[in-house]
Specification:
The structure is a single chain. The protein has twelve helices and 14 strands. The chain is of the alpha/beta class and about 350 residues long. The protein has two domains: about 170 residues, Rossmann fold (3-Layer(aba) Sandwich), CATH 3.40.50; about 180 residues, Glutathione S-transferase Yfyf (Class Pi), Chain A, domain 2, CATH 1.20.1050. A six-stranded antiparallel sheet has the order 2-1-4-5-6-7, with helices on one face. Strands 8-12-13-3-14 form a five-stranded parallel sheet, sandwiched between helices. It has a three-stranded antiparallel sheet with strand order 9-10-11. β10 and β11 form a beta hairpin. The longest helix has about 40 residues. The mean pLDDT is about 95.
Length: about 350
């Protein structure tokens, strides 16, 4: 079993210097809004992913008015302990250590401690822009597929370089595209790797989502999910060649796997336009449970589950399904936030699980 035994926070978000030990598989984190419940979950996520779930820049995770931060976590996996330390120094240089050894690349840490977060803003996965669904796929695949993660890192670097070069060409009026062609060779190579892995992944992932939805809702509601990619019909090399003039005119790359999406329909109409609030919540829950399932299969250990503010977002039926699966059925560590300690305590007692409460 993967287990976080202890965590220490220094100058992380609203925390000055705090530490907690976790003695039960299920931990409730309770307190009024604004006391730092979500921030504590984010600190756990940070130690698993080397970055915040919510903040795009590390500096946004530093306590206001301070410089630098430090997180420490003691994980246990298969009876072996691992000490993890994340440091953001005053000069904003970041370091990440495992058992006092500094990682040369943060990507080496991704997937060592698999983790799934369910947070209120996750609704964007089912009704938001395609970027949200790509990030979902990337987050899952990166935790167990090092080849995919490395290809993704290289692809994103090349995409930035390519877009910068397109702007430069437009600004100077130069038409020598030798450098662009050199970038495209690598761009096609890494993009094709990502496409093949995403295609294989979605073949396995999508049926899990639909199965979970049926289980939670008692009906499939005519929902269909498809992996959409420009590479489904064309080679990446041909796509880049065909869109070159458009790319140069718009000064950005219009073809590639950075345009991929999961298309969600309900009764052959757009899901986000047709679905009720309940159906949206059910689909999000089905996606997250599918994420949990895939990671457990691939990593041979149940991920740590982080549940933020789910009482406010889910009805009784969905709450029961979620809690039964993660707290009873699965052998995993769960962290749950709630504004009402008594409500959470009573619910967990009803589920007959051992738990501890942290009150902020």
């Amino acid at each position: 079993m993967l287990y976080l035994k202890k965590i220490s926070l220094f100058q992380f978000k609203n925390y000055g210097s705090n530490s907690w030990e976790f003695t039960e598989a299920v931990t409730g984190i309770c307190g009024p809004n604004g006391t730092g419940k979500t921030n504590l979950l984010d600190a756990i996520y940070y130690l698993c992913f080397t970055k915040s779930y919510f903040a795009r820049q590390d500096t946004f995770s530093v306590q206001q008015g301070k410089k630098g931060m430090r997180l420490e976590g003691l994980f246990e996996n298969n009876n072996q302990s691992f000490e993890t330390v994340a440091i953001l120094r005053e000069n904003n240089k970041k370091e990440f250590l495992l058992d006092q050894e500094t990682y040369k690349k943060f990507s080496e840490h991704i997937g060592r401690f698999p983790c799934v977060m369910i947070a209120p803003d996750d609704a964007a996965i089912v009704v938001g822009l395609s970027e949200e669904r790509r990030r979902l796929i990337d987050t899952i695949l990166s935790q167990y597929n090092a080849t995919y993660l490395e290809a993704l890192i290289q692809y994103n670097k090349l995409l930035q370089q390519r877009n910068s070069l397109l702007k430069q060409i437009a600004g100077t009026g130069q038409h020598d595209i030798t450098l662009l062609e050199a970038i495209d060779t690598q761009f096609v190579y890494y993009g094709s790797i990502i496409y093949q892995h995403r295609k294989k992944f979605t073949i396995e992932f999508i049926p899990k989502i639909l199965e979970n939805y049926q289980l939670i809702a008692g009906s499939g509601d005519g929902i269909s999910i498809s992996y959409i990619s420009q590479l489904n019909e064309n080679s990446f090399k041909d796509l880049l060649k065909a869109s070159l003039q458009k790319d140069m005119l718009l000064q950005r790359t219009n073809s590639g796997i950075h345009k991929d999406d999961l298309e969600i329909t309900m009764q052959e109409n757009s899901f986000k336009n047709r679905a009720s609030q309940g159906q949206r919540k059910t689909l999000l829950l089905a996606i997250k449970l599918a994420e949990f399932s895939v990671l457990k299969e691939q990593k041979k250990v149940a991920p740590i589950m982080l549940l933020d503010d789910v009482f406010e977002k889910l009805d009784e039926q969905r709450m029961h399904q979620l809690f039964y699966i993660v707290c009873v059925q699965e052998n995993c560590q769960v962290f749950i936030t709630d504004t009402h300690a008594e409500r959470l305590s009573n619910y967990l007692k009803k589920m007959q699980v051992n738990f501890s409460l942290i009150t902020l």
